Amino acid sequence: MTAKSKRKSTDIRVKEITFGYEDFPYRTPYEFGNRSVDRVTLLNVHCTVETGNGHLAKGFGSMPMGNMWAFPSKKLSYDTTLSAMKRLAERIQKITAGYTEAGHPIDINFTLEPEYLKAAVDVAEEMHLGQPIPKLCTLVTASPFDAAIHDAFGKVHHLSCYRTYGPEFMTYDLGHYLSPEFTGKFPSQYLSPIPKPWLWCNHSVSAIDPIEESDIKKRFQDGLPNSLAEWIVADGLTHLKIKLEGNNLESDVSRVLQIDRVAAKVEAGRGVHEWYYSLDFNEQCPNVDYLLNFIDRIKQGSPQSFSRITFIEQPTRRDLEVKPEQMLFEASKLKPVVMDESLTGYDAILVGRKIGYTGVALKACKGQSQSVLLNAAAQEFKMYLTVQDLTCPGASLIQSAGIAAHVPPIDTIESNGREYVPTANRAWLPKFSGLFEVRDGKLHTANLNGPGLGAVS
After folding, report:
1. Do the domains 12-172 and 190-444 sit in the same CATH topology, yes or no?
2. Four-CA torsion 302, 326, 348, 72, nearest 10 degrees
3. Radius of gyration of the chain from its Cα atoms, rounded to whole angstroms
4. Three-class secondary structure of residue 15 per DSSP
5. Residue 1 pLDDT grade (very low, low, confident, very high; cuts 50, 70, 90)
6. 421: helix, coil or strand?
7. How does DSSP classify residue 160?
8. What is the largest CA-CA distance in the chain?
9. Measured at the alpha carbon of residue 338, what is the angle toward residues 420 and 286, in degrees to the nearest 5?
10. Residue 58 — φ and ψ, nearest 5°?
11. Dihedral (Cα; 437, 239, 231, 401), 10-degree rounding
12. CA–CA dist 168, 157 (Å, integer)
């Protein structure tokens, strides 16, 4: 652990921080992990920061609250878990507004996260929830506050925030935030200061989405595609993220093979010879044997389909218990196995590696600070890296795309807001059309190099 005797002159204090909500209905339900979502509440945060010499800047952060994913519960209703997140957001705002120390945005988040977690315990007790608010849920609730501070920090220094993660701006190195082996290293060493010009769009296929014409039960007349086959043609897709049940082997195998059959036909018609799949079980596999049986069945049913799989995401439960049924080493010999729901901090990476995870999914909804730090750890450990979203529309997609565009090993990004909640993107289309509309299977990110996160000028 290294520290310097005095703070940086570039450090900022939070002068004001406020929040509000926006609600949008989904165009069509999104099913994953045996859960179905048909609406979204965005948590929007505005903040003002000040440097030691009195310079001011405003920042903005936004994130879907995603309670069905971040706070799954068999006994609590959607409205109850959402209410808990909203009450927690009030606490996080008060904690952040009451913090008067100057620091880099990562310092502020690193210091306040334990207080946020304590607040989550208090909210669960006050609301008599009967179960704790998960750490993942707290990270999601805090993420737009963290994003707004990073955004303001970049703007007060007239720089992309991705140019502010080196020793010129940070008092502490990675050894302070992670572990001693990172002493002398900074996040900037694992980031590109200039965004990639584009990323492949990893198009999400939910567990109930129509694959071909015969699967369509009700056709929407809104100008958007209605089946996967139509989406592939309309957006020129070559990367598909397939949501699977994880507790129905026959159904999971059949769905992947159907998608492969349809994709092969459509891509051949487009003259495309290479396309790829990622598979997401959303922690529903009961054990690793299920996953190995699934992989074996795919290999038998379509060797080419197996060869197109790039990674497998969160196959088993998120609690990361070191038990035989959780050991993923045999599976990760075949394909990268990526942590998502279980990835809640550096300690989770360390445990994940002990049970066979070989990759991580960075997510803006877990915080800009965490994404920057865990990216460094994952690269140092030579883990597979991907960026996934939480049906992120608007500013949250811009933040998510910014992460992917500045992490050198990543060349794809999940972007499903355009599929399920396109109304939330309409206000952003004029300025960032290349990001919110897929062209030739790509999301264009070259212009995400302005001050802050690039979401608001």
Report:
1. no
2. 80
3. 21
4. strand
5. very low
6. coil
7. B
8. 68
9. 85
10. -110, 145
11. -20
12. 12
Residue 253 CA to residue 62 CA, distance in Å, equals: 37
Backbone angles phi, psi at 305, to 5 degrees: -60, -45
Report yes or no: 96 and 160 within 8 Å, Cβ to Cβ.
no
Which residue type is seen at 183? T
Specify the residue for token string 């009195």. 54
Q: Alpha helices, DSSP H only, in 71-170?
A: 78-97, 105-126, 135-156
Question: What is the band of 321 on the pLDDT scale with cuts at 50, 70, 90?
Answer: confident
pLDDT at site 2: 37
pLDDT value at 5 more than 70? no
Token duo for residue 229: 């086959």
Residue 12 near residue 169, CB atoms below 8 Å? no
**Which DSSP state fits 407?**
S
Buried/exposed code over 172-183 (b: 16+ C-beta within 10 A; e: otherwise): bbbbbbbeeebe
Q: Which two tokens stand for residue 153?
A: 């920090």
- Provide the residue ranges of all domains of the chain, joining segments of one domain with +: 12-172, 190-444
Do 141 and 92 touch, CB atoms closer than 8 A? yes
Q: Which residues contact 319 (CB under 8 A, 6 or more apart)?
A: 342
d(CA 222, CA 146): 36
Place of tokens 């939910």: 206
Which run of H or of E encompasses 278?
Answer: strand 276-280
Question: Is it the case that residue 57 has pLDDT exceeding 90?
Answer: yes
| pLDDT confidence of residue 322 | 83
Per-residue pLDDT at 3:
41
**Cα 343 from Cα 97, distance rounded (Å):** 27
Amino acid found at 250: E
Single pTM value for the model: 0.97
Q: State percent of the chain over pLDDT 70.
A: 98
Q: CA 438 to CA 235: how far, in whole Å?
A: 5
Alpha carbon distance 214, 333 (integer Å)? 37
Residue 33: name the closest of 6, 62, 71 by CA.
71
Using one digit for the tens of pLDDT, what is the confidence trace for 202-224? 999 999 999 999 999 999 999 99
* Residue that is written with structure tokens 């300690």 in the block: 347
The fold of the 190-444 domain, in CATH, is TIM Barrel (3.20.20)
Architecture per CATH, domain 12-172, reads as 2-Layer Sandwich (3.30)
Q: What is the pLDDT of residues 100-155, one digit of tens each?
A: 999 999 999 999 999 999 999 999 999 999 999 999 999 999 999 999 999 999 99
- What length does the chain have? 457
Q: DSSP alpha helices (H): ranges in 326-393?
A: 329-332, 346-354, 368-380
